[in-house]
């Protein structure tokens, strides 16, 4: 199971590294972030700008009901991340975030089919269904503040919370 976590974390970090290559981080024409606030979820950087504290509220989650089980995702992103379900041969729960009228696909949790990275299988009413995750490269718009980029990357990285919630489900077996 540790190998699975390490492989998933390594894959997600590789995606983040690739997505971050060539992105401007100090733009003078930055677009304001809707998440910049001076509440308990932020601290200040050298320039006095608020920076999010991604370690707070790590254990607080909310439920996302699916046809097969209940997924959990960090509560801190509840108002920023949208989930859309598409049913068909593959039952997909798509996670996305909208920033300045631009939608960013973060990741999909797929029940059935063979797309993405296999994370295990779920047994529902005697039927074994493969479960996989698909992650997307985040191409940030020009001028997006670094804080907003970090928020989007953190939202995407929290796929691990969803995977951990699946592993707690009685009918789930992690991939070898």
How would you characterize this protein structure?
With 176 residues, the protein is an alpha+beta fold. The protein contains 3 helices and 10 strands. The model is unreliable at 1-47 and 49-57 (pLDDT under 50).
Provide the helix percentage.
Answer: 10-25%
Structural class: alpha+beta
Side by side, the strands of the main sheet go: 5-6-7-9-8-10
Distance between the termini: 7 Å
Low-confidence stretches: 1-47, 49-57
Number of beta-strand segments: 10
Percent of sequence in beta strands: 25-35%
- 3D shape: elongated
Could you spell the SSE succession in H and E letters? HEEEEEEEEEHHE
Q: Report the sheet with the most strands, covering strand number, pairing sense and barrel closure.
A: 6 strands, antiparallel
Mean pLDDT: 77
Q: Give the number of helices.
A: 3
Identify the quaternary structure here.
Answer: single chain
Query: Cα-atom Rg, whole angstroms?
Result: 17 Å
Write the layout of secondary structure elements.
Layout lengths: L1 H19 L21 E3 L5 E3 L8 E5 L4 E5 L6 E6 L4 E9 L2 E10 L5 E8 L2 E9 L10 H12 L1 H10 L3 E3 L2
């Amino acid at each position: 199971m540790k190998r699975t976590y390490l492989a998933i974390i390594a894959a997600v970090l590789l995606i983040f590294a690739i997505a971050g290559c060539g992105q401007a981080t100090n733009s003078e024409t930055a677009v304001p972030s809707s998440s910049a606030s001076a509440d308990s979820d932020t601290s200040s950087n050298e320039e006095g700008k608020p920076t999010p504290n991604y370690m707070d509220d790590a254990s607080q989650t909310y439920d996302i009901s699916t046809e097969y089980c209940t997924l959990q995702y960090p509560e801190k992103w509840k108002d920023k991340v949208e989930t859309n379900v598409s049913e068909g041969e593959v039952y997909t729960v798509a996670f996305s975030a909208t920033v300045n009228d631009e939608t960013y696909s973060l990741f999909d949790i797929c029940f059935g089919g063979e797309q993405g990275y296999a994370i295990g299988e779920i047994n529902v009413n005697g039927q074994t269904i493969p479960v996989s995750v698909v992650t997307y490269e985040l191409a940030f718009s020009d001028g997006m503040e670094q804080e907003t980029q970090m928020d989007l990357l953190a939202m995407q990285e929290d796929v691990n919370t969803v995977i951990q919630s699946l592993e707690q489900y009685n009918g789930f077996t992690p991939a070898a």
